[in-house]
Amino acid sequence: MTLSNDFVRGVGLLLLVGCGDVAAIPATPDLSVLRRNYDQPTALLDTDEANQTIEQNPTLRELAAAFRAAGYAADGVQPAGESAKADSDEGSIDIQGGVHVTLRCPGDLDMPTFDEGTNGSISLTVAIAKSRIKRGIGGSATSCIVRGDLAGIPIRVAVDGPFAFDLGGDLGVGAPFSGQILMRMDGTLDIAGIVFENLSARWTKDSFEYLYERTDGLTVVMEMVEGTVRLRDSQRLWGCQEGEPCGLL
User: Fold this and answer.
1) Quick one: pLDDT at residue 161?
2) Mind spelling out the 3-state secondary structure of 29-77?
3) Contact yes or no for 238/249 (Cβ under 8 A)
4) What residues does each domain of the chain span?
């Protein structure tokens, strides 16, 4: 990826530090509590509650397709790192401060159309300290339309409003990202015309997790690993195959 790619509208280096200078680092979202909620769900399910959890939520395949598409926002991290690295390479200095990136969204057609007026945009600020990108990144989507992949079938996904994501750890400037993403949508996520608010998800290339908060405030993690749907409660793991009741694993 290079900074001349069509989807990057602007990369602005806000702050640099070198030769003993001091620069402020933008505040970054802290998703540690959300991350802990994924690791430690609080509900203890019986068989009926496990089945109701599956029935009361959108399918994980739909959510996975939508969030992976919305994860397009993370593509802005690489041009931010490249911009900072270019300045760092000009001399032996540490980079500190922030990089603001705006991405044009591609739309949901076969051929991407990077037109803000038609398909919206995503803006984010990447914080950098000691030449490392901080793991927490915040931003906002403005009517951003992207294309999701639901088992080979394209679906329209629209993102609007603020969001935050966690890269799983700080990242070296200029280094490619691969691994786990935790994303919290504080705005709306439109999946094929159905609008959801205030969702979150955590995923890798092989797995997808969704945190479901029940009306009593207790939580369950719905997860999909290699196409298999499971539920994690506070003590146990349930298998929930399509068309069959959930059972303990």
Assistant:
1) 97
2) CCCHHHHHHHHCCCCCCCHHHHHHHHHCCCCHHHHHHHHHHHHHHHHHH
3) yes
4) 8-248
| Whole-number pLDDT of residue 209 | 97
What residue has token string 């914080």? 127
DSSP E strand boundaries for the chain: 8-13, 97-104, 121-129, 132-133, 136-150, 153-166, 171-172, 181-191, 194-203, 207-213, 219-225, 228-232, 237-239, 247-248
pTM of the prediction? 0.85
Phi, psi of 171 (to 5 degrees): -125, 135
Q: Which ranges of the chain have pLDDT less than 50?
A: 1-5, 10, 14-15, 17-19
pLDDT at 100: 84
Burial 144-182 (b: 16+ CB within 10 A, else e): bbbbbebeeeebbbbbbbebbbbbeeebebbeebeebbb
Q: Measuring CA to CA, which residue among 240, 215, 246 is closest to residue 227?
A: 240
Give tens-digit pLDDT for 78-108.
655 565 555 555 555 677 888 888 899 999 9
Tokens found for residue 201: 């998800």
> What does the block give as tokens for 130?
């000691």
Q: What is the pLDDT of residue 33?
A: 96
For residue 29, give both structure tokens.
Answer: 């979202």
Quick count: other Cβ atoms within 10 Å of Cβ 246? Answer: 21
Phi, psi of 105 (to 5 degrees): -90, 145
